[in-house]
Amino acid sequence: MISVAVNNVDKNYGKVQALTDISFSVEKGELFGIIGPDGAGKTTLFRILTTLLLPSKGSATVEGFDVVKDYKKIRKIAGYMPGKFSLYPDLSVQENLEFFATIFGTTIQENYELVKDIYSQIEPFKNRPAGKLSGGMKQKLALSCAMIHKPDILFLDEPTTGVDAVSRKEFWEMLIRLKNSGITILVSTPYMDEASLCDRVALIQSGRILAIDKPDDITKTFTKKLFAVKTSNNYQLLKTLQEYSKTGSIYPFGEYLHFTPSENSFTKEELEEYLRSKGCMSVEINTQEPTIEDCFMNLMVNNV
After folding, report:
1. Helices 112-119 + 135-147 axis angle, to 10
2. Which pTM was predicted?
3. Which residues are CB-contacts of 145 (< 8 A; sequence separation ≥ 6)?
4. Minimal CA–CA distance to 201: which of 226, 227, 219, 223?
5. Radius of gyration over alpha carbons of the chain, in Å?
6. What residue ranges do the domains of the chain occupy?
7. Quick count: other Cβ atoms within 10 Å of Cβ 231?
């Protein structure tokens, strides 16, 4: 069963084209990721699906309801957590949750079991103003507020941005538990490493979808050779490789540079010889298995 269907959606703000010909579907009970950098169009897409924006072209449905004609019905069955913390900072944790429950005609007590695993972690601070919570606790409160009316589907826009690594891990563990309970979840993120936690992902850049598939299947599409290279002066190394005639792509990746040659017959020995001829000493070169980020960078180059 299809929970979300998006068909040829465009969105423009005057002369700025935010989304171009977006099409995809999400199955019931799926954890679906929209992966891309800032400015890729993730928030615009979520705002259309949660009936806060009208598409300039195309159509979309959520649980069978049209995002334009049936917006009132969608708002009753969807939970939305925007990227920017949007709860009331002067209200306490409990007051925020009570407020959102009241809006949807329910109570904390009626749906407590639904948010218990999440809310119990911040309940000891229920009298603290929401604006004085840590980043991770704010995200848990926001998710509790999005869940309190027992939605059929959740839209989470960059829920872990600006959150520490431990809180990110805890948050994704919560999402997987919610997904296992049967709730459909769409989550957007700029963090490529979070893609592997989704059932399927859509890679998006400049308002266009570059690929849609299971994370493992996306990495299998990277068929080029890939080397991780580093030296004591990676900046100079980057400039040297940018000038190399056999460089297909080169970009920073943590403490390494990820280098893809323009020819599949290229060898590690050729790279070593070239760098030696340019005076690059003590260079470490390793064969590298591609990640989602490597695939994304490759797709960006091929779709320019």
Report:
1. 170
2. 0.88
3. 81, 87, 96, 97, 100
4. 219
5. 22
6. 2-214, 227-288
7. 18
What tokens appear for 27 in the block? 């199955």
2-214 — its CATH code?
3.40.50.300
* pLDDT recorded at residue 116: 83
The strand pair at 31-35 and 200-205 is best described as parallel
Residue (of 25, 36, 123) closest to 83 by Cα position:
36
Find the helix or strand (DSSP H, E) in which 175 lies: helix 165-180
Residue with tokens 């615009």: 44
Q: Taking the CA of residue 131 as centre, how many other CA atoms within 13 Å lie in the half-sphere pointing to its CB? A: 4
Token representation of residue 231: 């030296």
**What are the φ/ψ torsions at residue 228 (nearest 5 degrees)?**
-100, 120
Mean pLDDT across the chain? 91
Q: HEC profile for 62-113?
A: ECCEECCCCHHHHHHHEEEECCCCCCCCCCEHHHHHHHHHHHCCCCCCCCHH
* pLDDT attached to residue 303: 63
168 band by pLDDT with thresholds 50, 70 and 90: confident
Strand pairing report for 256-261 and 227-230: antiparallel
Give me 253's structure tokens: 């990746």
pLDDT confidence tier of residue 214, bands split at 50, 70 and 90: very high
